[in-house]
Design brief:
By secondary structure, this protein is α/β, with parallel strands linked by helices. It has helices at about 25-35, 45-50, 80-85, 100-105, and strands spanning about 5-10, 15, 40-45, 60-65, 75-80, 95, 115-120, 130, 140-145, 155-165. The chain has one domain (about 5-165): Dihydrofolate Reductase, subunit A (3-Layer(aba) Sandwich). Helix 2 (about 45-50) links the parallel strand 3 (about 40-45) and strand 4 (about 60-65). The radius of gyration is 15 Å and the shape is globular. The protein has 4 helices and 10 strands. Helix content is about 20%, strand content about 35%. The strands form 2 sheets. The chain has an 8-stranded mixed beta sheet. Strands 2-8 form a two-stranded antiparallel ribbon. The chain binds NADP nicotinamide-adenine-dinucleotide phosphate. NADP nicotinamide-adenine-dinucleotide phosphate binds near residues 8, 66, 80, 106 and 128.
């Protein structure tokens, strides 16, 4: 069985992005993202793919959802539907939904697990938000809290949730 996992960094007001970029630079969150996703398949929307500074993420099967699969996504598997994307992952142990908002929304009802970084700030200028979650369906199995420091402008915490069965 494949575990379908959402991974996202979310502010207190549910903000996740602005002008097609992230709203923060949190190196430890990037490290955690890399540790968790390396060696696995990742599914993302076309806009999130275009926000990656160096294109496809190395050592991962990059699957990009788009209605224009012929547009040329180097080192990626373009897919025209979530169903096609998930079919490409049938033999994977764990698959990560890495955003953005449109893709999180489609994956939320299907996901088994969520790795959420909570960013301790609000972003009134944000233009992209994580979808509303019914947290009563999720059990937190792990969390770690970190204060702001010279490399991290905001306090942040890592949370792992599994769907209650
Ligand atoms: N904080 C975080 O953890 C995090 C993570 C990821 C992204 N982000 C941020 O989120 C923002 C981008 O999110 P977004 O919601 O605007 O865009 P997105 O979800 O990254 O991409 C949306 C695009 O994906 C394609 N798509 C989505 N679902 C599809 C489906 N079922 N079938 C075919 N194509 C599909 C469409 O591409 P076409 O138009 O090509 O058809 C759609 O326009 C950026 O600001 C980014 O930095 C934040």
């Amino acid at each position: 069985m494949t575990t379908l996992s959402i991974i996202a960094a979310i502010a207190e007001d549910n903000a996740i992005g602005k002008d097609r970029q992230l709203l923060w630079h949190l190196p430890n969150d990037m490290k955690r993202f890399k540790q968790l996703t390396t060696g696995h398949a990742i599914i993302m929307g076309r806009k999130t793919f275009e926000s990656l500074p160096n294109g496809a993420l190395p050592n991962r099967k990059n699957i990009v959802l788009t209605t224009l699969p012929e547009a040329g996504f180097v080192n990626c598997f373009p897919c025209e539907s979530m169903k096609d994307a998930l079919e490409l992952c049938e033999n994977e142990e764990e698959v990560f939904i890495i955003g953005g908002a449109l893709v999180y929304r489609q994956a939320l009802a299907k996901a088994d697990k969520m790795y959420i970084t909570r960013v301790g700030a609000t972003f009134p200028d944000a233009d992209t938000f994580f979808p509303v979650v019914d947290w009563s369906q999720w059990e937190e199995v792990e969390h770690q809290l970190f204060p702001a420091d010279e490399k991290h402008a905001y306090p942040y915490s890592f949370h792992t949730y599994v769907r209650k069965r």
